[in-house]
Structure formats: C-alpha cells, structure tokens
TrEMBL record, chain B:
May play a role in vesicular transport from endoplasmic reticulum to Golgi. This is Trafficking protein particle complex subunit 2-like protein. It comes from Myodes glareolus. It comes from the Eukaryota. It is found in: Cytoplasm, Perinuclear region; Endoplasmic reticulum; Golgi apparatus. Keywords: Cytoplasm, Endoplasmic reticulum, ER-Golgi transport, Golgi apparatus, Transport. One of its GO terms (biological process) is endoplasmic reticulum to Golgi vesicle-mediated transport.
Length: 716, 139
C-alpha cells in the first residue's frame, strides 16, 4: 500500500482518480519506478520542496484530517491541482466538491511518503504549469520548482477548485483531449493523457522532475516501453479516428489529419516531424495504426517528451499485407521501414515510396531470400500461358509457373500444379533446388516473370521480404517444368537416353545466370545475391542429367497415379539407376516434379489435377513411392497404356516400331502411323524447345543489361 | 562525393541547400545558381520537356576545380542539383542516377507531409538524414 500510495501520490498526484482505477497497473509499472524515483526524488527534489511542502502540508493538514502521510501526499497531490486551478479556475469549480471527497478518499487510502509526493507533485504541477501558458509547448524547461511553489501556496485556497478542475477533467479524459486543445488549456489534455497511460504518467513525471537525473533515471526506467499505447489510449485514438473516418480500415487524408493535429497547438515543424514518423508508407494518408501512432506522439510531445528520430517499435503500424507474402519487416530499431513495405503494397503508397522503404527492408532481409524469390520465378519453365495462369493464382508469388513444354494436353493440370508448385519453388529454391528450375522453359517464364515482377515492383519487395513463402513455390515449379522437359526429352529420346541427358545440361545454365541477375533488378541486391543465384545454376547443371531421369520418373509417377502408366517403365530402368546415383535432393526434386508432371500428363485424370495442387507437401513421399514403383515398372517396358496420349503414344510407338517392321503390312502401317505420330510429337517438342531457347536467350540478354544497371547500385 | 546538394523550386528559389562544411558554401551556391541557367537552357531545348533523369546531367561544369555538377529535373520543374567532387573515383552515371532517385523519393515523402507547404524550406529531418548519408557516403 505504501508503495502504491507512494507511487500514486508521488507520481500521479494529479491523476489520483486514474490511479485509483489503474491501481494495479500503476503498482505494477510503478514498482520499478518507485524505487528509483523515490531514491532520486529524495535526493534532488527534496531540498527544494521541503519548505514549500511544509507550507502546503500545514495548510492541507488544517483542511484535511487524513493521516499525516496521506495529508502529505495529498498536499503533494494538491499542489498540482491548485497550480492548475490557479491558471484557470474557471472550469469546474462547482465540481470541486465532488472530486474533493474522492480525492480525499484516495489520498487517505494511500499512505505515501509525503516528501516523495511533494517533489514529484511539484514537478508535475510545474510541468502542467508550463503547459498551461504554452499550450502545446513541447519543452520541459525545468525552470525550477521555486517559483512554482509560490503559486502553489497561493493556490492553496484554490486547491479545491484545482481539484475540482482536475477531477472534472479526469472523468472525460479521452473525449476532451482534442476538444481541450481547442477549448481548454492543456491541463485537460494532460489529465486525459495521464489516465490514459500509466507509463505516460510515469514518464511524464520523469520529465517533470526538477532534476535531470531524476528524469534520466525515470526515463530509463520507463524506457521499457515509453511509447507503448495503452488500451485506453488506443480506444480513444480509435474513437477520434472514427470521427474523421468512419471506416476503420480506411485512410485519413492528409488535409483532414493536418487540421486535426493542428488543434493540438504543436508547432508546425513538430507536427511535420510527427507526420514523417507516423506516416509509414508515405502515402499522404493515415491508417488507423498510423493515426494512433501520430496521436500518441502528439500526446507525448505535449507531455514534454521529445520526438524520437525514428518511430518506436511499439508505434509501428501493423504490417498486415506484407505478412502474407513477406516479412513484416524489421523494427525501426534499424529503421521503421519494415512497416512501410507491408502497408505500401496493399494500398495507397506509390510505388516509389514503397520501393524506397522496401529497399531498406530488402537489404535487411537476407540476400538469399531476396535473391531466391526472384530467381525461382524465372527459373520455372516458360510457358507463357502457364505463367499467366500461375501469376493469377499466386498473386503473391512471382514465381513463374513451371510450364511443361511437352505437356500440352495437360496444360490445365500443369497450371494447377504450377500454382501449387509455385509456392514450393520459392521455398525450395532457397534450398537450392534451382537446378531443375533452370530448365529451358525458364527463359520464357523468366522474361514474363521479369516483366511481371517489375509490374509488381511495389509489392514484390514485400513478397520477397519473407524468405520462406516465395521460394517454396519455385522449386516445385522448376521441378515440374524440368520434369516436363525431361518427359519431352524422354519421349523424344526414348530410344536414346544419352540425347536426353545431353539436352538438359545445355539449357539450364542459361536460365540460371539470367535468373540470378533478374531478381536484382527489382532490388538493390548485392552482387552476392547474384553470386548466390549463379551458384545455384551450377547445381542445376549437375541435375540436368537427372532430367532424363525425371522424365522417366514422371512417367512412373503418372503411371502410378493413373495405374495405367507403365509406359515409361522401359525408360525408367535406365534412368533410375542414374537418378539414384544423383543427389538425393535432385531425386526428391525430381520426385516432386514427377508428381507434378505426372499430374500434368494425367490431365485426363481430374484427380491428378487436384493432386497437382497439393504436390508441395506430398511430393517427396509420393515421389519416393513412385521411384519405387518405377523400379517395379522397370521390367514393364512393353506396357504402354496411354497416360497422356502423345507422349505415351510416342513412347509406345517407338518401341513398337521395330517390331512392326518385321510384321505384316498392317503392322507396317501401324508402325508408320506411330512414326508419324512420334514425328509430330517430336516436332512439337522441337518447336517448344526452340521457343524456350529463344526465351532463355532473351532473358539472358535482359538480365545482363539489368546486371550492368544494377552494379552501380551496389555501391550505393 | 556529393559535396553539395540543392533542391531548387520551380521558380528557381532554393528549397534546400546542403554543403559539406569543409568548403566555402558560397562557392557551391554560386555554382548551383549558374547551373540553373544551363538547366533552363536544356529544358527549353527539349521542347516538350521530356523530364528524364538521363537527360539532365549537366556534366562537368568546372573542370579546373574538378567538380561536376549534375542536375535532375522533375515533372514539376523542381530541380535537384548535385555538385560532386571528382577527386575521388569517378562516380558512374548510374550511381548518380540512383542518388537522384533517392533524392526524388525523399522529396516525394516530404511533399506527402500535409504539414509541409510547397514552397517552404524543406526542414524534414528524414530528408536531411538522407542527404547527409549521400554526402557522407561519397567520402
């Protein structure tokens, strides 16, 4: 009790009523402060206040019959109100009676060390006193309690009035806040402010303390979260917000906010600074969070706190939009920019400010994440339509949908896979799965992705901010794409696996280097980011040999899925051993892509599509199973049940061709048909590959240009 | 490297000037002032005034003093003039452009502040910090 009373009386002399309401909170927050404040107060203010305190105490003792301590505390309490009352006694003299009793009751309830009370009270009152004349003055000139005490003495008579004024103000604190700005002296605002936050009160006290040492100590003690907005304050802010903007999710335009905050009578320069701090996304309008932060800063400033250079963490607006795709952002401990990116993309912020803000965030974020995000997008195979589909589905992800070159029939399935896979690639790319992504199809996608990323420049940084989400999709995409390619290769080179292997290695390298510089375009990615990207490319190269395997796996996967796809069995046996020899990661990737590809190939099977959408999690497992099944299927070379038509047909036709030759004319004709079919299929594959090659080359060129442009940025 | 950065308003009065304290600021102010004529010349020559970052670099104005004056004009005829000391490694054109982009972004943020009246001196601390960082970085 003593402690509580001491803290209350000592610090919350004015806000007795508030203290009563927040007794617990005060006690909790006040404990650490009490000790310090008590100690510091005793040392410094005591000497000054002793004399005046005696006067007050004597006076109060005469007027009140509470214990000496309470009286002392009361006297400490009373000085502030009288000070106020002195300044303006108008407000609620009539209320004095009612508040008085309550104040008296409060005081007796808290046995406080009177000496401690008075010093803090005096600083408070003094501070208030200063406030009164200056209205919105932000300085805390500790001119010294001396002159202030005299007013107290004079105000003794008006103490009741002061109390009344005080108490009168305390009840409607939140609502009067701005009104008081306009109509009443700052006292009311101070009152309102105090009850609003215990911390503010404590900090206020620290500010008010006559001794800088006290201030420093108290401030340090209250530095735990001096800028934290209490619930009361927040509710008040929200109410004020609604008076201007009924929609809590809406924005307050700058002009309206300007009028509102001008009422606080703070200097324009300070208001400008407050705006700079609180308008996180620099869009010229305030969201609810921004408004609360600005309001809180104004309140703090009126209470004597200097404005911070950077927005305190507790006042950072909540990053909502970014959370979806990117990291919410780092606290301004580094800079408050983290918040801005989050808010910027969703709404109003122009691309430039958001970019500006996101850049620091991006820089802060790991290079890998920043790099990974863009890379995967480009990495994914290029099927323009696939990409578009993917982009539409994965708005947050910029990863390009892996476009299986081969699977035209299963475009739909692929797209579905891509969407799901898009999520993976981003994550996987981080792991270094990019290898599969570098498939030739990437050039197309990369090009389109680059453009898309640029279009989403405002938002892309946000997406890239959070490392995990973006990368995931990519790996899956890349895999699917790579698998598709593999399949195509497998189909085309069903007879010659060597050819298949040869192809993949050639293609992937291009997309990788192109991809690496690509992402940097949107962000001031250091060369390191590029390097990391390029490093992934080599990984891709080694994985290329797996493409052939992938194709085989795809076949297996498809066959497994559809239970009718054993066509690739013959190819799998050769490839499987090679694949297994490859890195397990690659196999996993293949498996994932296989799963995806299978689904793609199994366009006819709607189930595949659905499976495709959920390949991310299951792929590894099912793929492994598929691998196993592949092994089983190896012996089933001759089993060709149409999986997806063309490829299956091609595969089937190829092996059957030689057989038909040696058979009847019918067999020859059949073989001829098959050959034609295979020819058409191969032709398609060739065209697709050529397109991919062109895209890759284009992307490479563009990326190189971007790289050159980005290089100077690295210096900055 | 940027020893002086100035923001000139449309009416050719300065909104913000900051120089490294080591040098005589008056000299920089004079250079900035003379560069305004060159800027106006270029703007008039462009006809439709395609405001483009690339087109507004004045290049080297004082070769003897090893200074380069770069200029960047916005669509609202607000000019950013930057005096760079060439004694250090020559800044690449792209770097200059990125610096101007940052300047422009900061200026936009200042404009977004409803408490800032266009035409007033720029007193934003954030803007000051950004300019200071650019000037210090050069060194």
């Amino acid at each position: 009790m003593e402690l509580c009373g001491a803290t209350r009386l000592g610090y919350f002399g004015r806000s007795q009523f508030y203290i009563a309401l927040k007794l617990v909170a005060v006690a909790q927050s006040g404990f650490p402060l009490r000790v310090e404040s008590i100690n510091t107060v005793k040392d410094l203010p005591l000497p000054r206040f002793v004399a005046s305190k005696n006067e007050q105490e004597s006076r109060h003792a005469a007027s009140y019959s509470s214990d000496s301590e309470s009286q002392g505390s009361y006297s400490g309490v009373i000085p502030p109100p009288p000070g106020r009352g002195q300044v303006k006694k108008g407000p609620g003299s009539h209320d004095a009676v009612q508040p008085r009793p309550s104040a008296d009751q409060q005081e007796p309830a808290s046995p406080v060390v009177s000496p401690q009370q008075s010093p803090p009270a005096s600083p408070h009152t003094w501070r208030k006193h200063n406030r009164h004349p200056s209205g919105g003055n932000s300085e805390r000139p500790l001119t010294g309690p001396g002159p202030f005490w005299s007013p107290f003495g004079d105000a003794q008579s008006g103490s009741s009035a002061g109390d009344a004024v005080w108490s009168g103000h305390s009840p409607p604190p939140p609502q009067e806040n701005w009104v008081s700005f306009a109509d009443t002296p700052p006292t009311s605002t101070l009152l309102t402010m105090h009850p609003a936050s215990v911390q503010d009160q404590t900090t206020v006290r620290t500010v008010a303390s006559a001794t800088t040492a006290n201030e420093i100590r108290r401030q340090s003690s209250s530095c735990d979260d001096p800028w934290k907005i209490t619930d009361e304050q927040r509710q008040y802010y929200i109410n004020q917000f609604t008076t201007i903007q009924p929609d809590l999710n809406g924005f307050i335009p700058g002009s309206a906010a300007k009028e509102f905050f001008t009422k606080s009578k703070l200097p324009i320069l300070e208001l400008s600074h407050i705006w700079e701090l609180s308008d996180f996304d620099k869009d010229g309008a305030l969201t609810l969070d921004e408004f609360c932060a600005a309001f809180h800063l104004v309140v703090a400033r009126k209470n004597g706190y200097d404005l911070p250079e950077k927005l305190p963490e507790s006042l950072m607006p909540k990053l909502i939009d970014l959370e979806d795709s990117a990291d919410v952002g780092d606290q301004p401990g580094e800079v408050g920019y983290s918040g801005s990116p989050a808010e910027a993309p969703p709404s109003k912020s122009p691309s430039m400010p958001s970019l500006n803000q996101t850049w620091p965030e991006l820089n802060q974020s790991s290079e890998d994440t920043a790099i990974v995000h863009p890379v995967p997008i480009r990495m994914t195979p290029s099927k323009i339509h696939m990409q578009e589909m993917e982009l539409k589905r994965t708005s947050s992800d910029h990863t390009n949908p892996t476009s299986p070159l081969l699977v035209k029939t299963s475009d739909l399935s692929e797209e579905s896979k891509i969407n799901s896979s898009v999520k993976f690639p981003s994550g996987n790319t981080v792991d270094g799965y990019s290898s599969s992504d570098s498939f030739p199809s990437d050039p197309e996608q990369i090009g389109s992705n680059v453009t898309r990323q640029r279009s989403h420049s405002g938002a892309s940084p946000d997406n890239t901010a959070p490392p995990p989400p973006p990368p995931r999709p990519q790996p899956s995409h890349s895999r699917s794409s790579s698998l598709d390619m593999n399949r195509t290769f497998a189909v085309t080179t069903g007879q010659q696996q060597a050819g298949v292997v040869a192809h993949p290695p050639a293609v992937p390298p291009r997309p990788q280097p192109s991809q690496a510089p690509g992402p940097s375009v949107h962000r001031p990615v250091d060369a390191d980011g590029l390097i990391t990207h390029t490093s992934t490319s080599p990984q891709q190269i080694p994985e290329q040999p797996n493409f052939a395997d992938f194709s085989q796996f795809e076949v297996f996967a498809a066959s497994n899925v559809t239970e009718e796809q054993d066509n690739e069995a013959e190819k799998h046996p050769d490839v499987l051993p090679a694949e297994k020899a490859s890195d397990p990661a690659g196999s996993l990737r293949v498996a994932q892509t296989d799963g995806k590809i299978e689904e793609k190939t199994a366009a006819s099977v709607p189930a595949n599509v659905s499976k495709g959408t959920t390949p991310l999690a299951p792929p590894p497992k099912p793929v492994r199973r598929r691998l196993k099944s592949e092994d089983e299927l190896r012996p089933d070379v001759d089993e060709h049940t149409q999986k997806t038509g063309v490829l299956a047909a091609v595969l089937a036709s190829q092996p059957s061709i030689p057989r038909s030759v040696g058979k009847d004319k019918k067999a020859i004709q059949a073989s001829i048909r098959r050959n034609k079919e295979t020819n058409t299929v191969l032709a398609r594959l060739n065209s697709e590959l050529q397109q991919q090659l062109k895209d890759v080359l284009e992307e490479r060129i563009s990326l190189e240009v971007q790289l050159e442009q980005l290089r100077p940025f690295s210096h900055l | 490297m940027a020893v002086c950065i100035a923001v000139i308003a449309k009416e050719n009065y300065p909104l913000y000037i900051r120089s490294t304290p080591t040098e005589n600021e008056l000299k920089f102010h004079y250079m900035v002032h003379t560069s305004l004529d060159v800027v106006d010349e270029k703007i008039s020559a462009m006809g439709k005034a395609l405001v483009d970052q690339r087109e507004l670099y004045l290049g080297l104005l004082y070769p003897t003093e090893d200074y380069k004056v770069y200029d960047y004009v916005t669509n609202s005829k607000v000019k950013f003039v930057m005096v760079v000391d060439s004694s250090n490694t020559a800044l690449r054109d792209n770097e200059i452009r990125s610096m101007f982009r940052k300047l422009h972004n900061s200026y936009t943020d200042v404009m977004c502040n409803p408490f800032y009246n266009p035409g007033d001196r720029i007193q934003s601390r954030a803007f000051d910090n950004m300019v200071t960082s650019m000037m210090i970085q050069v060194c």
